[in-house]
Description:
The chain has 401 residues and is mainly α. Helix content is 75%, strand content 1%. It has one domain (9-196, 213-400): Growth Hormone, Chain: A, CATH 1.20.1250.20. It has helices spanning 9-31, 34-43, 49-72, 76-97, 103-133, 146-161, 173-190, 217-245, 252-264, 267-278, 280-300, 304-315, 318-332, 338-364, 369-387, 393-400; strands spanning 199-200, 206-207. Helix 6 (146-161) packs antiparallel against helix 9, helix 8 (217-245) runs parallel beside helix 14 and helix 9 packs parallel to helix 12 (304-315).
Amino acid sequence: MPTQTSTPPKELFSVLTAGAVVLLVVHGLGRFIYTPLLPYLVDDGQFSAADGAAVATWNYLGYLIGAMLAIWWHRIDQIRTLLPVSLAVHVITTLAITQTDNLTLISAIPTLNGVANGMVFVHAPALILEWLVLRNRASISGLVYFGVGVGLLLSSGLVTGTADWLQGAQRWWPAALLSIPLAWWGAVRLIRLDIPSSTHDDSGKVVTSTPLLDRASIPLFLSYAGAGLGYILPMTFLPLLAKIELPSGHWLLDGAWVIVALCTIPAAWIWNRVGGTIGDLPALRLNFLIQLLGVLVAVVWPGDVGLFLCSVLVGSTFLGTVLLTQRIGRALHPHQGPRLSAAMVALYGFTQMVGPWLTKQWLEAGGTLVSAFGIGVGALAFGLFFAFFVPRPELWHSRES
Length: 401
């Protein structure tokens, strides 16, 4: 078995970079480029703000389906086949959405894109985590999410940089074209990883199945559900909220999403380091608290200050929630691997789908977008509460022995 000292730093860097690139593609150039695009697409007359929320919901439904499929197809040999297929679906659907202004198709295409996104977001980090565990380097697994932060910044630059000379469906072209070479390179690198197709327990026996839900994992799942619903509102509607609250020409109209992106870039490294210093579980609780304050400030302090603080605090925390929860889950159930990751992402995906749907209902009932952010505050408080009921993995396993 490879060890920490036998794996060259260059190889570690190459694998983490490939994982970061595929997450950049499906998240930055697929899922979250929709957030800075949304105000422009509304201004272009493609759809209303409420319809835009519905389109986001369809995309998140696809993400949920993709994550659920990843629970079923969780073996290493299956991931090697499905990862490049999912990336190909992302590229094809992103190219397809450049060709239509029809609302029905605009809803259907992101649904398929979401399926691909959900599978990649499960399969790529899970594959890399298993590879790193074999090399005693699981502690650096969170760095793969660096690609999401870079993707957010890149998506912001692509949208604002082409805003004056693209219109409607054409606004998707930069993301579509850039996705092609990046998806190809990342897929080729990751499917070559040397990982056994079977998982073994401490006695060397092949592990086929262990329970996903028990007294340790249920609070973690509930906490993660709160995180998914809590962060998705600002990550979907922050630029639109800025457009509603700020005067024309204000720097935060585009700047809010740039701030989120800039804060997201170092977030994976920061929370990876915080988790390694104080422990993943205390770090997760701190992460929830900061993120909750970020959404709350947008509600209680409308305007440029609230938007700025929300951008900073949410942008610097939401990736940390993901990487810390994934590591805690695997530490509680070390033989679950990709299956556990898929179940968590599926739950996260469901709550993310609920967020835009609730926002659409709220807006159509006469509510305001800023008051809808209160849903996120409540969800993050829910997540923080249950994070205190998750046991430390080492204590949990000592009780079983």
